[in-house]
Amino acid sequence: MKMAKKPDKDEYQQHLRLVLMGIAGVGAIGFTIQFVFSVITFGR
C-alpha cells in the first residue's frame, strides 16, 4: 500500500480552483432558479 503524500503547491491550487468553481456553479444555478421564479411570480 502506498503512503499518501502531501500535495504540492500546483496540485493544491488546482484542487482549490476546482472546488471553488463547483461552489460558484451551484450558487449560480440556485441564483438563476430563484431569479426566474421571482420574475414569474412578479409577472402575475
TrEMBL record:
One of its GO terms (molecular function) is protein transmembrane transporter activity. Keywords: Membrane, Protein transport, Translocation, Transmembrane, Transmembrane helix, Transport. The chain crosses the membrane at residues 20-42. InterPro entries: Prot_translocase_SecE_dom_sf (IPR023391), Translocase_Sec61-g (IPR008158), Translocase_SecE/Sec61-g (IPR001901). It comes from the Archaea. One of its GO terms (cellular component) is membrane. It is a single-pass membrane protein. It is found in: Endomembrane system. Pfam families: SecE (PF00584). NCBIfam families: secE_euk_arch. This is Protein translocase SEC61 complex subunit gamma. It comes from Nitrosopumilus zosterae.
